[in-house]
Amino acid sequence: MPLMSRRHLMLAATGLVAVAAAPRFVFAQAAAPAATPFTLPPLAYPIAAFEPHIDAKTMEIHHDKHHAAYVGNLNTFAKDNPQIAASPIVDVLGKLGDVPEAIRTGVRNNLGGHANHTMFWQIMGPDGGRPEGDVLAAIDRDLGGLEKFQTDFNAAGGRQFGSGWVFVIVDKDGKLTIETRPNQDSPIMDGKRALLGNDVWEHAYYLTYQNRRPDYLKAWWNTVNWKVIGERYAAAKAGTLGI
To answer: What span, in angstroms and rounded, lies between the C-alpha atoms of 108 and 11?
Structure first.
């Protein structure tokens, strides 16, 4: 058999290298994670930060399971309907009629839940202090002072039938009102903004309080971060408050 020329040997070696490299390249491509436009925001505090008012297991389930499920569902919708992730959340929720009918209810529930919970985690924090400055003045002016406001807020949350939320709505002039919404509906759907809100779904309190929602509503005030709420109030008056 004739000897291979040096040129043939080099070409053969090059081909072997290419064949050997190809599977590794294909495998690396297949292992790349799929893009997920919606993400679960991390908590800015330990899950046990609010004990005994809210127990760590409730915080873990609420954030890592319930909120995460809304995010996961949204990413599933976005695979075939990328437009729901291409616009700001406030624009999608504010124009639900533009969302394809086949997924409209799912987007309403899951994007509303994502927006509500993102706000919820932001306005809570250990050692949250007390309201002061402009937001305290607004509470005194519009809601009859802090004590009356908290009593009325708790009463509204207690009256909400089934699952839902109780909110303090803030308009562009800084005026405050108390409103409730069923399920995961957000004030954004009505062109409004929430200064703060409390989740009265049973998943928010049942492990500690069972059917005693009024006890949970009273205890929840120990978790409120008034510094963040003051910042949200300033943003609302400036027209920059998002979710």
So the answer is: 61
